[in-house]
Amino acid sequence: MIDKEHQNRGYGREALRLGIRSLADRFGAKEIYTAYESSSSVARDLYRSFGFRETGEAAGNDVEMRPALDGARKS
Ligand SMILES: CC(C)(COP(=O)(O)OP(=O)(O)OC[C@H]1O[C@@H](n2cnc3c(N)ncnc32)[C@H](O)[C@@H]1OP(=O)(O)O)[C@@H](O)C(=O)NCCC(=O)NCCS
Q: pTM, whole model, 2 decimals?
């Protein structure tokens, strides 16, 4: 989560890029799951740009997504 005063400056995208890389390179993750609040189109679109797609599962307002690691956007 990025502090409200610092959103829309590229921090979320960079944090997600580094997080995915770290999980894959340091921990050998083959799959990563995340979720977005159904009201957050910014989070949904950010995850989608990295190759995350909805799995069809949801818990309350949280919509689950799963990417293909090699589908991650190179940025
Ligand atoms: C969602 C969140 C993590 C994104 O982080 P961020 O640092 O604000 O986002 P970035 O600046 O890296 O921008 C990522 C993309 O979102 C877009 N974006 C960011 N804030 C936006 C806004 N308020 N309105 C429209 N688009 C926005 C950017 O244009 C960018 O799109 P692009 O890369 O296709 O050009 C952050 O806004 C946040 O923590 N929001 C509140 C909590 C939340 O919703 N968390 C996620 C719950 S699942």
A: 0.89
pLDDT (mean) for 1-8:
97
Strands ordered across the beta sheet of 34-37: 34-37, 62-66, 53-59
Tell me the three state secondary structure of residue 14: helix
Among protein residues, the one whose CA lies closest to atom 19 of ligand 1: 8
Q: Identify the structural domains of the chain with CATH numbers, from first to last.
A: 4-71 (3.40.630.30)
Cα of 30 from ligand 1 centre, angstroms: 25
Residue bearing the bigger pLDDT, 75 or 65: 65
